[in-house]
Amino acid sequence: DLFIRTGGEQRISNFLMWQLAYTELYFTDALWPDFNAKALDEAIESYRTRERRFGRTSEQVHAAP
User: Fold this and answer.
1) Among 4, 7, 9, 33, which residue carries the largest CB count within 10 Å?
2) What is the spatial distance between Cα 4 and Cα 41, in angstroms, rounded to a whole number?
3) Does 47 score more than 80 pLDDT?
4) Is the pLDDT of residue 34 over 90?
5) Spatial separation of the C-alpha atoms in residues 42 and 26, rounded to whole Å
6) How far apart are alpha carbons 2 and 7 in whole angstroms?
7) Angle at 17 between CA 32 and CA 61, to 5 degrees
8) Residue 10 near residue 3 (C-beta atoms within 8 A)
């Protein structure tokens, strides 16, 4: 899951606090009316490059099963 917060604020204000567990957060300075396809592509590219760990450490993710 990817949560995008526009407007430069870097907080979620307890919005969907439980539903956002393990969600990747993306913050942008762009205001909502100015958030366009290019800005969405940038958010998705940032998401693509992240290591999803779901509460584990990098070592646990890469450890042999």
Assistant:
1) 4
2) 12
3) yes
4) yes
5) 10
6) 16
7) 100
8) no
pLDDT-derived band at 33, boundaries 50, 70, 90: very high
Contact predicate 26/3, CB 8 Å: yes
**41: CB partners within 8 A, 6+ apart:** none
23 three-class SS: coil
> What's the pTM?
0.82
Q: Nearest Cα to 29, choosing from 13, 11, 62, 6?
A: 6
CA distance 13 to 5: 11
Q: With contact defined as beta carbons under 8 Å apart, do 9 and 31 qualify?
A: no
Parse the chain into domains and list their residue ranges.
2-62
Helix (H) or strand (E) holding 19: none
